[in-house]
Design brief:
With 285 residues, the protein is α/β, with parallel strands linked by helices. The chain has 2 domains: 3-121, NAD(P)-binding Rossmann-like Domain (Rossmann fold, 3-Layer(aba) Sandwich); 127-263, Rossmann fold. It contains 9 helices and 12 strands. The strands form 2 sheets. A 6-stranded parallel β-sheet has the order 3-2-1-4-5-6, covered by helices on one side. Strands 9-8-7-10-11-12 form a 6-stranded parallel β-sheet. α2 (85-89) links the parallel β4 (58-60) and β5. α1 packs across α9. It is elongated, with a radius of gyration of 21 Å.
């Protein structure tokens, strides 16, 4: 077995565990780094990142690569793994894949010499991930809302990939769905699909559940003041999100920040999505 048959999975959550097991099931040799606190991972070799990532030619980093500033996202590691020159040097001459890589480039100039690709920026990854996120959002809503989603009044803020998937699923359950957007073309599509349409800057009204997918300040105190006190706000957008958490608390509104849902509610599927995306990128290289 040569280096091209070996993968290194470095850090990450349950998604990367599922990813490692799935690649191993495909017949490749898989080394995992930063998982000494995890339960048994089937078919892989546990290794220490300090020894380097040989014999792996391909290294897959987590999503996101950086958890806290300057450290690898590695919740199953008993030690913090610094993203510095030492770490980056070990990736030289490797084909590296990671999610949300851009912040990592500032941790060491060595990254300028590393062949790195971001799988989270691929369209096939984003679409498949949106499905898992939408399912996770619905699960979160069902666990939090005392009524049934069937017949509930739901607002989905934003008509990107997640907004499209979530709106479609909510209507399938029988919810009364309103979707917000800024672009006239999106508003036209929203109406064509049979949802109620509202401009994002004109959000008003009474909803049982509000799902925000917009990573920008949309739900200010002025907007939240229109919401009934029993409205449940679920923010799906990456930090800092789109809902003013302090204003929501002040007004007595329940806000749930639901991040990284695929890794929490569907880690096996999320791992498969990463694997297939990386395979596609390797074929194109």
């Amino acid at each position: 077995m040569n280096e091209k048959d070996c993968f290194g999975i470095v850090g990450g959550d349950k998604r990367q565990i599922a990813l490692a097991e799935s690649i191993a099931a495909d017949g490749y040799r898989v080394y995992v780094y930063g998982f000494d606190l995890a339960e048994e991972i089937r078919g892989v070799v546990l290794a220490d990142w300090k020894d380097g990532f040989d014999p792996c030619e391909t290294v897959i980093l987590p999503l996101p690569v950086m958890a806290t500033k300057g450290f690898l996202n590695a919740p199953y590691s008993s030690e913090k793994i610094p993203l510095n020159d030492v770490f980056a040097e070990k990736l030289r001459d490797k084909m590296v894949f990671g999610g949300r890589l851009r912040p990592v480039y500032a941790t060491s100039p060595v990254w300028n010499a590393i062949e790195a690709r971001d799988y989270s920026e691929r369209e096939e990854f984003a679409v498949c991930n949106a499905i898992s996120t939408a399912e996770g959002a619905i699960q979160t809503a069902m666990e939090s809302y005392e009524g049934t989603l069937h017949g509930s009044s739901c607002l989905v803020a934003g008509f990107g990939r997640i907004g499209k998937a979530l709106s479609w699923m909510l209507r399938g359950i029988g919810a009364d769905v309103t979707v917000s957007a800024r672009k006239a073309s999106d508003l036209a599509w929203i109406e064509l699909y049979g949802y109620r349409a509202v401009r994002t800057e004109e959000i008003r009204g009474r909803y049982d559940l509000v799902f925000n997918t917009i990573p920008a300040p949309v739900f200010s105190q002025r907007v939240l003041e229109w919401m009934p006190s029993d409205t449940i706000l679920i923010d799906l957008a990456s930090l800092p999100g789109g809902i003013d958490a302090a204003a929501a608390e002040k007004l007595g509104l329940r806000m749930i920040r639901a991040l990284s849902l695929p890794g929490k509610v569907a880690p096996k599927s999320a791992g498969e999505i990463i694997k297939e995306t990386v395979y596609n990128m390797m074929e194109e290289a």
